[in-house]
Amino acid sequence: MTLQTLSESRAHGGIQRVCSHVSAATGTEMTFSVFLPPAAQNALSLPAVIYLSGLTCTHANVTEKGEFRAACAELGLIFIAPDTSPRGEAVPDDPAAAYDFGLGAGFYVDATMAPYATNYRMWSYVADELPQLLAASLPLDLARMGIMGHSMGGHGALTLGLTYPERFRSISAFAPIVAPSQVPWGQKALSGYLGEDRTAWRAHDAVALVESGARSGEILIDQGSADAFLAEQLRPELFKAACDQAGQPLTLRMQAGYDHSYYFISTFMADHLAWHARRLAT
Amino acid sequence: MTLQTLSESRAHGGIQRVCSHVSAATGTEMTFSVFLPPAAQNALSLPAVIYLSGLTCTHANVTEKGEFRAACAELGLIFIAPDTSPRGEAVPDDPAAAYDFGLGAGFYVDATMAPYATNYRMWSYVADELPQLLAASLPLDLARMGIMGHSMGGHGALTLGLTYPERFRSISAFAPIVAPSQVPWGQKALSGYLGEDRTAWRAHDAVALVESGARSGEILIDQGSADAFLAEQLRPELFKAACDQAGQPLTLRMQAGYDHSYYFISTFMADHLAWHARRLAT
């Protein structure tokens, strides 16, 4: 698990790095970015947030467009942005090379279906391998980690966070897919990676997880009202209903006029980071 | 001069637009971005800053990576980002398609040399056409405009600002080319666009302009100490010496460890915008 630094730039008083390593989970070379706030120069351990990106993205989208560095620098938060799938010529893609399955669309599961099961293990990569790898070389406190994400990455943040509340102590999401079992993007991905037995899908569906008793601290979700995917793919009202029913604390904010883009994400990024930092302070 | 809106997204409470129009100056279709802060919904006229990008860039680089929207929203500043050259199949490029001449490298001059003279008229485009075009449809106060830029765009901001101090009331730059007549990037561009007679270059060289008596209010420059282009292409010490000699007020800040990238620009963007806003307040 040798970590290679691909680039390093000073930014907002800290360091923005892009790194790669051969992943034991995926069997591929994985690239991610990590921002170290100025406090990392002296602190022995800092809280960290993992940000999971949406369909088609790599680490680069949020790293370039996310506007997270000023807030992380001020709050003393490490910001970690992994890729959204394994990559490489040996990695099987969607047969039709669609944008919503295969490369760039790992959906944060450990696939069980051939030919995807070998490499598509983003669940283990995000939950286990990446935090352990980073904690070995950075002042990262594994007991103070939060998780957040956008769209497909919001799905990953909710499912990973609800499954491991002791590992991810705070959860937030921008325009997440909350009920993949009930929407086209999710149905395609879960059937392709996990097969047609829908009982296996429940562990990767935030609504089903909450219905089955999974709990976290208060969850924060921002959703743009002008998001083109709102009605068909995102359906936050399903998560709201499940949380209300189960007594899972949720703050769901509909943001008037905002779409699905990084213009939306970057607008509310600092607010989400402050929210995580408060919950990860001690 | 019909203005076409290519995209529009809500961001930081305002509106980020990308627009195109057929330019009288360049004879081509030009694309630019403009951010309208929330105050634009009610204000009759707002101050504006034109941001000129560096080599290889389009409007998109700063629009995505510049981290200017939060500050512009708070300060009530309109932010305008034009392209760096004319584009299109009919526009002559560098014969070798190099990154530092031709497409993406207009150097903010009105070319006089064939075959560039027809389209490469970024000086007139930025100084005249674009502000007039925008003022016709937006609450933009032409009497309260500032100009800023990065690298080649810093060169453009300095030369346009020093030439038209009544039009551009505040000037700032990130890692600007300050003496194109004395560095490889500038010598290639100015000889290609303006010819070998170096007297014609002086109007497009910030050091020469200050030596010839051009003046502005205080100019702000940030320069990273780890910038790979610092010693050969940028040479801010030449501008410092010219300003000191001439009594032109200049704040030149060397920023330790910062490189030439948008990680550097975005770090100091809010600071530059506040600096412009103070000078454009009335």
UniProtKB/TrEMBL annotation, chains A, B:
This protein's UniProt keywords: Hydrolase, Serine esterase
Molecular function via GO: S-formylglutathione hydrolase activity
Catalytic reaction equation(s): S-formylglutathione + H2O = formate + glutathione + H(+)
Keyword NADP: no
Pfam family, one: Esterase
Gene3D superfamilies membership: alpha/beta hydrolase (3.40.50.1820)
Enzyme class at the top of the EC tree: hydrolase
InterPro entries assigned: AB_hydrolase_fold, Esterase-like, S-formylglutathione_hydrol
Keyword Hydrolase listed: yes
EC number: 3.1.2.12
Cross-referenced NCBIfam families: fghA_ester_D
Role summary: Serine hydrolase involved in the detoxification of formaldehyde.
Family: Belongs to the esterase D family.
Protein name, as recorded: S-formylglutathione hydrolase
